[in-house]
Amino acid sequence: MREPVSPLRVLAKGLLLFAIFNLVFAAWAPAHLGDLSLYGSVFPGRLRLPFGEDSQHAYNLSLFNLDAMFSSQVLAEGVKPQNEYRVIVIGDSSVWGILLRPEQTLSGQLDAQGLATCDGRQIRIYNLGYPTISLTKDLMILNYAMRYQADLVVWPVTLEAFPFDQQLASPIVANNTEAVQELIAKFHLPFNPHDPTLVQTNFWQRTLIGQRRNLADLLRLQLYGVMWASTGVDQVYPTDYSPAQTDFDTDVSFDGRQGPALDQTQLAFDVLKAGEREVGKTPLLLVNEPILISAGKNSDLRYNFFYPRWAYDQYRQDLTLQAGLNDWNYLDEWNLVPAGDFTNSAIHLTPAGEHLLVDKVKTSILSLSCR
Predict the structure, then answer these.
(1) pLDDT digit string, tens, across residues 28-46
(2) Which of 126, 177, 187, 209 is 20 to 30 A from 261 (CA-CA)?
(3) Which option is the CATH number for 34-237+248-369: 3.40.50.1110, 1.10.287.3240, 3.90.1300.10, 3.40.630.10?
(4) CA–CA separation, 177 vs 198, rounded Å?
(5) Among candidates 358, 359, 357, 349, which has minimal Cα distance to 292?
(6) Which residues face 285 on adjacent strands?
């Protein structure tokens, strides 16, 4: 005769199994879950890294798992073809392409040119820009991207990405503490690896319960792949938006300073040097990206919302000096684009504005690819 089932014993066994599963999950899953992706197999890889604030209409979302972000990208599809010369473009929201469709971005327009190297390899351009402005964010993405065998790196930058207080503030940086700490140690960067901005997770936060938000985001990213595959939409494209500001008051401060000189020790040139070390023998093209130059009220004091003239002028001098001292491949295209070819920000370009930059960057890519 079988013994009656004890509900307490069943409950105890269930709790024990759940505890064991949580321990295993906390030790293994957080570091590997992002590798599980339907992109590149069930549906095509995305043309830019996941980012979005209106998931229902953009079929996209922001998350902090670098593995999941890159696994969803077209760059991660299969083995690099032998006849491909691979160019990756890193940078801020202007590179990612706010208000631009993937094919209208700097990367998209460059890729559509059908460029080839002197030895006949096809030049393919991959968009690894990510909104938020921080050189350290760019370096973190570059560090991850180098596993994909880049032949050339293009890195557009702007002054707003240089101040020290911007470096760890980007949410994707703050939520990738281990990756940032490794960069700080590897390149001896002048940041505190235990800065309170960096999110520290304990063991219990890595369990199944503690990771439920991250798990939900990973699942949603896969589900949105269905709509991405059928529409190609990955951000909201409003019919109207507030144009970039062109009239200003008399405030001439930048990063809490009034001038007349930038404190170069408070700018993260060391991160640019770390980027050069990260790519090793792979060529790196540094681009001082175009900014809006206003002709409106008090435009004699400020170029745009971001930059008083005194700060930006000195930044350009400092960056040009650093580029010369370090023998960087450098383009200064700050004044290339007319004010009418900016959209909702002093660094976001229209498709026509991007095309002007494409022509300049294309020439450098062709030159560097034939060396």
Answers:
(1) 555 555 567 889 889 899 9
(2) 187
(3) 3.40.50.1110
(4) 6
(5) 349
(6) 154, 329
